[in-house]
Design brief:
- By secondary structure, this protein is mainly alpha-helical.
- It contains seven helices and no strands.
- The radius of gyration is 23 Å and the shape is elongated.
């Protein structure tokens, strides 16, 4: 990372645009890239931000799987409390997860690891929202990735909510 500029009179580092106005910094960096002004780029911060973007995609995948798995667990283990809200969350998280994978196919090899991490958090989410005891939920994910992402898969006993929803949305 380049050394911060200093005020010559006081020798106090002057904050750069990255530190004071991130959006303006991104626009400046994009402009410099377009103009191929390589020597003017803030390479240290640019590299850090690009690496961070990749990490954010992995985090988003884990978060979407966590919410999806948490709702699938609630759906299965608390059938009497099923709602259109739970159904909508399951459907939206599935679509968004598939879209994320479509936009970032290099995340696919990470799916199995993401599933393990997401299950732990999804299980905690389900325990917290259902008040069911920990032993109610399996220690490892009872669903395959194919099931989790399958828009026809709803664990546990069948629900009329799914049929009603699909009937309403076919019209």
């Amino acid at each position: 990372m380049p050394a911060p500029e200093t005020n010559q009179q006081t020798a106090i580092p002057t904050p750069n645009l990255y530190e004071t106005d991130f959006y303006a910094w991104t626009q400046e960096q994009a402009s410099l890239l377009r103009q191929q002004q390589w020597s003017q780029l803030d390479l240290g911060n640019l590299i850090e931000e690009i690496e961070s973007l990749g990490k954010q995609q992995r985090q988003e995948l884990r978060n979407r799987l966590k919410v999806l798995i948490g709702h699938l667990l609630k759906w299965e283990y608390q059938p009497q409390r099923r709602s259109r809200s739970w159904l909508a969350t399951i459907r939206v998280q599935r679509r968004d997860t598939l879209e994320l994978l479509k936009d970032n196919p290099s995340l696919k090899p990470y799916l199995e690891d993401a599933l393990v991490l997401a299950y732990e958090n999804g299980r905690d989410l389900a325990m917290g929202e259902t008040d069911l005891p920990e032993q109610t939920f399996p220690q490892t994910c009872p669903y395959s990735l194919a099931e989790i992402l399958d828009d026809k898969f709803y664990p546990g006993e069948p629900s009329e909510l799914v049929n009603e929803w699909e009937g309403e949305n076919e019209s």
